[in-house]
Structure formats: structure tokens, C-alpha cells
Design a protein that fits this description.
Blueprint: H1 2-32, H2 38-64, H3 74-79, H4 81-110, H5 114-135
Helix pairs in contact: 1-2, 1-5, 2-4, 4-5
The structure holds protoporphyrin IX containing FE.
């Protein structure tokens, strides 16, 4: 499970990089009114794929690293901020972000005009990226802090 945890920790950077790239494309596309390019499509495709992989790794940790078991003692689990975060908050907010990324990509594809595509990119991927950012257990977040980079120890 240590390897899976290292992968999940490391992969957050891929999600954030592709998410930021998508957001920058959405902002520049929307405000400069340029045409929707293959670069726009590529960035949000990679953002979606990285979220899919991160969800899969997260689910493995959730079910095979003891977090799901903790829900059996719901009362005590809710009292402990760290347990509550990893069994409930982290998972549910990030699944919402994942759903938004998928709906967003389908919605961008469906939009008829380039400004509409960039606007939808901005809304869906912008909100998803914000949810992802606030749900990461950054080292500066008391009670739930985890390292920026994890390695074998
Ligand atoms: C974009 C989505 C996600 C990001 C960026 C993300 C990021 C992270 C990070 C940085 C950690 C701390 C890793 C460490 O201790 O070094 C973590 C832990 C964890 N994540 Fe995620 N995560 C995401 C989605 C999910 C999802 C969807 C689930 C569950 C279905 C999940 C389940 C977990 C669990 C259970 C832990 C604690 C692992 C352990 O200590 O055993 N994550 N996540």
C-alpha cells in the first residue's frame, strides 16, 4: 500500500499541472476570443485522464488501506478530524470534482461556438480545479496535513 500511497501523492501534481494548463487555455481563449484549438482539447483531455487515474488510486487506498473499515464506528470516526477528512470529505468532494470534469468535457464538445466552448471550459474545469485544490491535505493544513512529496520511509 506504501507504493499506492506514493503514487497517489505524486499524481496530485499531474492533476494540478494539467488542470492549470486547462484553466490558462480557458482564460486566454475566452478573453482573447481565439478559436478553440487542438491544444485546448488536449489539455482538458489530459486533465480528465489524470483525474480518472487519481480516482482509481484513491479508491484502492480507500477500500484497502483501512479507511472504509473506519465507517463501521461512525460516531468516533466523525469526532476525529483526520479520520473524518479521509473517510468522508476528501473522497466526496473529489468525486464531485471528477464528475464535473466529465460533464465539463462532454459539454465543451457539445457547445456550438468557440466562445461557448471556452466559457464552459472556464466554468466546469475552473470549479473542479478549485475543489481539488481545497481538498488536498496540504502540509500547512493542521490535523490533516500530509507531505508535498512522499517517499519510502
Ligand atoms: C484529483 C483527485 C485527488 C487528489 C489530488 C488527491 C490527493 C491526495 C493526497 C495529496 C493525499 C495524501 C497522500 C499522502 O499521504 O502522501 C491523498 C490521500 C488519500 N486520498 Fe486522495 N486525492 C484525490 C482523489 C481521491 C479520491 C477520489 C479518493 C477516494 C475515492 C481518495 C482517497 C484518498 C485516501 C483514502 C487517502 C489517504 C490514504 C492513506 O493514508 O491511506 N483520493 N489524496
Amino acid at each position: 500500500m506504501q507504493i499506492v500511497l506514493i503514487l497517489h501523492s505524486l499524481f496530485r501534481w499531474a492533476v494540478l499541472i494539467f488542470g492549470l494548463w486547462t484553466l490558462v487555455n480557458a482564460l486566454t481563449g475566452f478573453f482573447s476570443k481565439r478559436t478553440f484549438s487542438s491544444n485546448d482539447n488536449r489539455s482538458n483531455l489530459l486533465f480528465m485522464i489524470s483525474c480518472d487515474i487519481q480516482l482509481l488510486i484513491g479508491l484502492i487506498l480507500y477500500f484497502f488501506n483501512g479507511w472504509f473499515e473506519r465507517l463501521k464506528d461512525l460516531g468516533n470516526n466523525m469526532k476525529d478530524a483526520n479520520s473524518r477528512f479521509f473517510t468522508m470529505e476528501h473522497m466526496s468532494v473529489l468525486i464531485i470534482a471528477w464528475v464535473l470534469v466529465h460533464i465539463g468535457r462532454a459539454s465543451v464538445k457539445k457547445a456550438q461556438t468557440d466562445p461557448a466552448k471556452h466559457k464552459r471550459m472556464l466554468i466546469f474545469f475552473g470549479i473542479a480545479l478549485l475543489l481539488i485544490f481545497i481538498s488536498i491535505p496540504w502540509p500547512f493544513r493542521q490535523l490533516i496535513e500530509r507531505p508535498y512529496f512522499r517517499w519510502f520511509n
